Amino acid sequence: MSLDAFEVIGGKPLSGAVVPQGAKNEALQVLCATLLTEEPVTISNLPDILDVNRLLELLAGLGVSVERLAPGTYRFEAKSVDLSFFQTEAFRRDASRIRGSVMLIAPLLARFGQAFLPQPGGDKIGRRRLDTHFTGLQALGAVFNYEPEQRQYAVKASRLKGAYLLMDEISVTGTANVLMAAVLAEGVTQIYNAACEPYVQQLCRMLVSMGAKISGIGSNLLTIEGVSRLGGATHRLLPDMIEIGSFIGLAAMTQSELTIKDARIDQLGIIPRMFERMGVKLEFSGDDIRIPAQEEYEIQTFIDGSIMTIYDAPWPGFTPDLMSIMLVLATQAKGSVLIHQKMFESRLFFVDKLIDMGAQIILCDPHRATVIGLGRKHQLRGISMSSPDIRAGVSLLIAALSANGRSVIHNIHQIDRGYENIDGRLRSLGAEIRRIEG
Ligand SMILES: CC(=O)N[C@H]1[C@@H](OP(=O)(O)OP(=O)(O)OC[C@H]2O[C@@H](n3ccc(=O)[nH]c3=O)[C@H](O)[C@@H]2O)O[C@H](CO)[C@@H](O)[C@@H]1O
Ligand SMILES: C=C(OP(=O)(O)O)C(=O)O
Q1: Is 168 close to ligand 1, i.e. is its CB under 6 Å away?
Q2: 122 C-beta closer than 6 A to ligand 2
Q3: Does the beta carbon of 343 sit less than 6 angstroms from any atom of ligand 1?
Q4: Residue range 170-195: average pLDDT?
Q5: What is the average per-residue pLDDT within 91-104?
Q6: Residue 409 burial by CB count (10 A; 0-12/13-18/19+): exposed, middle or buried?
Q7: Which residues of the sequence carry a binding annotation for UDP-N-acetyl-alpha-D-glucosamine (predicted)?
Q8: Which of 401, 402, 412, 419 is nearest to 436 (CA)?
Q9: Which atom of ligand 1 is nearest to the CA of 25?
Q10: Is 406 annotated as a binding residue?
Q11: Tens-digit pLDDT profile for residues 45-74
């Protein structure tokens, strides 16, 4: 049996400073982009997490030279790419484990004229369609084929030609894919209704430093003038904004004083403001965020006195990946909030575990949950539970750290997908947590 569970003894305030890891979702994009050139690309601040390590293995399998220069810093050289790797069982297995593998498609299509992909993995949080990716690539001239029996996607193109694209939804990885095809396409491409999350902006910046011509970075209209080849680059990942939000939630729930160092506050959009709406005090000093120990926090109401709603939206709206953290945070707040998870259909079901721990939550439907904050009148109680997805997993971990007594969280490889050495870092803040068989 593997050590796939955490044992947590909760109820202890933590204290200290944390440096956020590099952003998981940015890492998955820029790693795929290394395939766009035969010249060396060096990327630093890569987090040591399951999803990144799996993608590194996929790149190595494709023949990319992957050289670790220092912890978190790697040099990539995609000089001789081996497309026969697509036919291997290793490729099928590893590519279907992570969501990020979907972004291998466009760079391979753009540089070698073909790509295959099994149904990519990632969180099981409801339907996650890929239509936007493929209709975008088709508009640039690719021929697309889906084999339903094998759940396998294939694309081919002898040449890609720039076009005007109105994306049918704002997709983060979809935008990244089409963008990576467009940079090497002939002529001008416009991507309207593009996603503009910091992950996508960072990918654009790295592509520009490789020689791509992109304007409109940070907006929902990207204009790309294709070039015939791209060169090498050096790129550093932003701190992971979802991890930053997770630590803010952790500090408030456990009444701890924590400092998040080098948080790139300028890149966090409305994330800090949303925590402030939940009553969490934040102090900004330079690029650090200090969360003072707070006995209680009170959820604000809207100006007219009506109940607060927190809902997700494409950037610059509030990221769906922090909705579970907001929900758990609300369980101990003073006041009530409606959590409205608009994007994903199965991301709120973990509330059952919080209810078992003593939280007051009404799951209205798969997208909405009303939380009636306990206002610290009762502490949550430790229980045994299983982590359904990465963010629910961390939310349950936060709940367990704030709860009275012992909790066991199973299925923690879900958390390890996106949080580097989370138990070690929590221990250094004073948490009682260890890995056990599960
Ligand atoms: C590896 C990676 O980067 N994963 C992130 C990426 O996933 P990913 O790129 O897979 O997610 P998409 O942006 O494509 O869309 C997410 C889901 O929301 C739906 N949708 C999308 C836009 C919209 O306005 N309304 C709507 O309902 C889509 O149909 C899809 O089911 O972006 C998601 C949305 O920020 C994040 O949760 C994931 O962590
Ligand atoms: C949903 C997430 O990841 P993925 O898209 O890799 O499943 C996430 O990071 O919250």
Answers
A1: no
A2: yes
A3: yes
A4: 98
A5: 93
A6: buried
A7: 99, 321, 343
A8: 412
A9: 3
A10: no
A11: 999 999 999 999 999 999 999 999 999 999
Return the percentage of the chain with pLDDT > 70, whole number: 100
Which helix H or strand E contains 433, and what residues bound it? strand 432-436
| Averaged pLDDT, 76-101 | 92
Fill in the amino acid letter for 413.
H
99 lines ligand 2 (CB under 6 A): yes
Contact status, residue 401 vs residue 29, Cβ threshold 8 Å: no
- The β-bridge partners of 169 are none
Structure tokens given for 45: 């601040």
Q: How far apart are CA 302 and CA 346, in angstroms?
A: 27
Measured in residues, the chain has a length of 438
Residue 189 pLDDT exceeds 80: yes
Phi, psi at residue 102, to the nearest 5°?
-60, -25
Give the pLDDT mean for 178-191.
Answer: 98
Task: With residue 28 as reference, give the H or E element that holds it.
Answer: helix 24-33
List domains and CATH numbers for the chain. 5-21+240-436 (3.65.10.10), 24-236 (3.65.10.10)
Residue 124 beta carbon below 6 angstroms from any ligand 1 atom: no
* 25 marked ligand binding residue: yes
**Is the separation of the CB atoms in 288 and 262 below 8 Å?**
yes
- Give the DSSP letter of residue 265: G
**Residue of 54, 94, 123, 171 to mutate, ligand 2, most atoms within 8 A of C-beta:** 123
Residue 1, pLDDT score = 62
- CA 378–ligand 2 middle distance (angstroms): 32
User: What value does the mean pLDDT take over residues 203-208?
Assistant: 98
Report how far residue 336's alpha carbon sits from residue 321's, in angstroms, rounded to the nearest whole number: 21
**Residues involved in catalysis:** 123
CA distance 383 to 86: 43
Ligand-binding site membership of 206 (annotated) = no
Torsion 252-258-263-265 (CA) sign: positive
Task: Tell me which amino acid residue 310 is.
Answer: I
Task: Say what angle helices 198-209 and 172-182 make with each other, to 10 degrees.
Answer: 20
Q: What's the pLDDT at 167?
A: 96
Task: Please state the φ and ψ torsions of residue 384, each to the nearest 5 degrees.
Answer: -100, 130
CA distance linking residue 3 with residue 244, whole number of Å: 26
* Confidence check: pLDDT of 424 > 80: yes
Protein residue with least CA distance to atom 12, ligand 1 = 171
pLDDT at 254: 98
**Residue that the structure tokens 């902006």 belong to:** 201
